[in-house]
Known about the structure:
CATH architecture of the largest domain in chain A: 2-Layer Sandwich
CATH architecture of the largest domain in chain B: Roll
Largest sheet of chain A: 7 strands, mixed
Distance between the termini of chain B: 38 Å
Number of domains of chain B: 2
Largest sheet of chain B: 5 strands, mixed
Number of domains of chain A: 3
Helix content of chain A: 10-25%
Number of strands of chain A: 28
Shape of chain A: globular
Number of helices of chain A: 16
CATH topology of the largest domain in chain A: Aldehyde Oxidoreductase, domain 4
Structural class of chain A: alpha+beta
Oligomer: heterodimer
CATH superfamily of the largest domain in chain B: Beta-grasp domain
Number of strands of chain B: 5
Shape of chain B: globular
Strand order of the largest sheet of chain A: 3-5-1-13-10-11-12
CATH topology of the largest domain in chain B: Ubiquitin-like (UB roll)
Helix content of chain B: 25-40%
Structural class of chain B: alpha+beta
Distance between the termini of chain A: 63 Å
Order of helices and strands of chain B: EEHEEEHHHH
Radius of gyration of chain B: 18 Å
Amino acid sequence: MTPLDMPMKHGDAGDGASIGQRLSRHDGKLKITGSADYALERQFEHAAYAVLVPATIGAGRVVSVDTAAALAAGAILVLTPEDDLGLAQATTFTGQRPEGAFLPLPHEIRFDGQSVALVVAESLEAATEAARRIKVTYEAAPVTASLVQTPEDAGTVGEQFNVAWGDAQAAYADAPVKIEADYHTPREYHAAMEPHGLIAKWDGDRLTVWQPSQWVHAMARNYSDWFGIPMEDVRVVSPYVGGGFGSKGFNYGWEALVPAAARRLGRPVKLALSRPQNFNLYGGRASTRQTLKLGATKDGMLQSILLTGASETSTYGVWPEQVGAATPLMYGTPNYRGQQRIVQVNTVTPGALRGPGKAPSAFGIESAMDELAYAVGVDPLEIRLRNQPDHDRMSNKPWSTRRLREALTEGAAAFGWDKRPMAPRSMRDGHQLIGWGVATGTFPVIRNYGEAEIRVTAEGRVEVVSGATDIGQGTYTVLAQTAADAFGVPVDEVSVRLGDSSLPGSPVAGGSKLAGVMTGAVHKAATAAREELIGLALTHPDSPFHGIEANTLELKGGRLTPPRADAPNVTVAELLRAIGRDGLTVRRDTLPEDMQSPEERKRAWTTMTTAQGPTVGDYSQHSWCAHFAEVRVDEDFGTVRVSRIVSAFDCGLLYNPKLVESQWQGGIIMGIGMALFEEGLVDARNGRVVNNNLGDYLVPTNADVPEIQVISVGIPDTNASLLGGKGVGEVGIVGVAPAIANAVFHATGKRVRDLPITLEKLI
Amino acid sequence: MVTPHPNHKPPEHGIHLMTDTIKLDINGKAFTLAAEPRVTLLDALREHLGLTGTKKGCDQGQCGACTVHLDGERVLACLTLAAQAEGKAVTTIEGLAGEDGTLHAVQAAFLEHDAFQCGYCTPGQIMSAVACIREGHAGSDAEIREYMSGNLCRCGAYPHIVAAVRQAAEAVR
Lengths: 763, 173
């Protein structure tokens, strides 16, 4: 039986005994007692401590590194640009491997804070002090500090991001109502609570790395490429991850220095980045700008959307933050044209941060739709309902499931939107101006392949084994639920092992796809294990079921039951004992037949080349959401407080609504940060991120967060995944910032088009 | 009071890397460690004693992940030298549950309300919550939000943290 054969119960709830239930976190007790062993907490007798030395110029060259004072202060090893580490370039997530040597400490400086040396000492304190005593001589070069320093036509057009249908320019010229506006989003940072770092340990030519990771398999391949050793001889371990949000998916160059140092010293070496280094040794969300032109009829029906955007990248790597990622999907316009430029500045290469592309993209289109609503005098909810598209114009495919209309109407009802007066500045409470805003969001369904092992123990317990990681989204929990239902045991009888590259293959815990992919793999493996056990029960001569006239048995609640009531009824443990087995191990993957070779398997588990986008196949598949926000703005001081949020989501079937609601709320809260607080401030002289700490780079605190109501309007989408779930992790942030910006407009009459909405923009 | 380790010898390069013997009372147990005086309580716990339940998020007193109790009051272990904790009762997340493993009311409420995701800020949140309730600052949701705002949670579990603290405060009242 597949999930498709199961009778449907209702709405978004699952139908198994466990899937769809509001279970507490499988790994919860470990986390609330301090016993969950995060990667950097692995203890070693003779570990040495490493500290990275940051460059203090934004561009130029390292002329020399003076290590004498550091060595006098207790350094036992200093790696500098002069050291030949003998490393090779590694394959990237695209599957391409650049040729030549890899230099983690290049002489050329491309951004402030780039590593110029690694200092190792007996203690963290000694390494920190010794690193402070490294003296670097530079040749400085001119710096382009950030996107705001560059002209409108800077950079190059990313041809792959061109989207067009109809004749957008002509339709815009002819439209009775025109809106044109520029929107800007600043650099934003992951600020995961657990810092980046790694512990490296060699045993002969075998390397083990303990590292917080969203993708242990790709990292194992990366180390094997760098160090020229077989992937089987590298193990990356990451049992619990203290938040990633996109930052812990790939290796960064400085990470190569730690195994290199460990090899030279012949002992384990540990590096944990300082909090400031977490702001410039890997990239956050790139700063973006976009110009949007909307052409519409007088009753607000869109005729044309024209988007020209730009995002910044580094001078040595390309990471596009796609400001057109959501724009063409949200509304039914007969004419569309979108274009994006990529602009090089002196920064670390930006990266994926929750809702990459989609979050800044939605800030543009969802602010502009609000502007259009006011230009034509149509309620912002109504104008969105009027312009919902009946299919995906970009791919010309039908939506697999798109319950955004339901999200808008059910969210509005829960929020009380019908009581909203249209005019800005029409609600107040003393000094506080009150405003209500709405905006929508989306995130694509990305599909991929996974592999899982099911081990049935002599006691009848089930162990799920996978190399997938849990970064807080709930992998442990939903895989336990999946195995419990598919095999037929209570979820308490299931344990889960994750986060180790020596375990079965998995894609990255990113792109909101891991749960969909891995529940599919675990379901397949657990179903096969059940079938194998039932086969043994019916055919093994020592089985109590041997010789009964039945084609199959039921396995439920950990008990095997035959169709006839008078036949025996035994537990899994009793059966295994009777047939003299101490357990059962079954491994399955979801790869197609023609991808079973070792090369193809390696490609699937260590690159992104096997991922399938939202329009592969017959449908266009996405998660959807609608956010309703209430703000209170102090009329005198311009301070904005979010006082209420209601959000409705279509994410298909929810494997565990309790955990999903947590992720949705977390995304919304990060969206509050994007709207009101978060902005990487860059020194125009040298490109230095000056607010590189959690006291100056503001993230939401408990006191910044109001009551948040989340509603599910989804129905199972079995095109998206085997069990019918769509992604939940990233969609939550998408659309929050424009909902708040629109509420601020409603409260104050002021349209803020550059994030974050700080008080000086309102007074 | 700290004194140089009797075996301490100044290294030849002239930088004094003194090692002290520091005696700490952690979760009712006596620990002795040999560490430099510049070692923080946080690094003493995590790097010297293997008590890694207390987390290092920023090492700058900004995030609250390292919150522990000194004589029952919440402090940031990253801004406290290990030597400063001598003679005081240190309580960490590992010492919160009963000896038989019975969860503290705050721990149980965090689990029930899903007041965490990645779990990295969680020990600090829980230590802060226990103190917040003891201080009498859990009287309303607004008060809980204010007095729990020294502990950042990037996963955004705040609404569930408030619910958990409210429930635990009622349970111990």
